[in-house]
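[audit] Reproducing an earlier prediction to check determinism. Same input, same settings, fresh worker. If the tokens differ from the archived copy the diff job will pick it up downstream; this log only records the rerun itself.
[audit] input (247 residues):
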Amino acid sequence: MRALLPEPADDVNLHQWYARDWVERGGIRVNMITSIDGAAAAKGLSEGLQTPGDNHVFAALRDLADVVLAGSGTVRAEGYAPIELGERRTELRRQYGLRPALPTAVATRSMHLDPSSALFAEAHSDARPIVLTTESADPAARAAFEPIADVIVCGERDLDIGQIRRALADRGLTRVLCEGGPTLFSQVAAAGEADEVCLTVAPLLVGPGAARIVAGNGWTAGPRRLTLDGLLEEDGGLFLRLVAASG
């Protein structure tokens, strides 16, 4: 075993670092956070694990995305609202060739969503929310969201991640930032659709009982191999950039 850590570099430009091999290629990039002992949240929310560095990475990843993808459970728990970028971040997106607005796509098998929540009720016309659901979802619930969101069927009884990728790409949304939660991350990874994982390891011990960053049914195809592409550190927090291994 050899130590291959490079010389430390200060003042890393996060946008340049995360744009490399991403802006032109695109794909599905997953952003997750975990404690040292593997917890996906503290006191039920990922916010309990976040550090200032993680918040900076979180914003940079959004700045470099065409669309934010999240599961309905995460949208409810974290109180998602329309993404407001501001003038500086909008100009930065233009420099990278991205659209000014950043819409949110919600993956939900059951359509258990609240149309009066801020994400839908306060959405801007240039960042209309997208609801990705299944044929088996309640038709009345789907119809209730059609005036306020683009409702797209991606699977019969379960969400088909490949169909989700294609549906978003058909709308020109090829740089997909998946913010989880654990169930959606598991589905994306199990389907072999996670092109990149940006993982924050927070310098915290949460203790037993907390959920992991993957949840749901087991994988029948075995482990998914990733390759470490880069590593940042700030105040004890580690920020890993991992890409899907070829072959």
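[audit] rerun output stored. Observation attached for the diff report: The helical segments are 14-19, 52-63, 72-78, 86-95, 118-121, 139-145, 161-170, 182-190.
[audit] end
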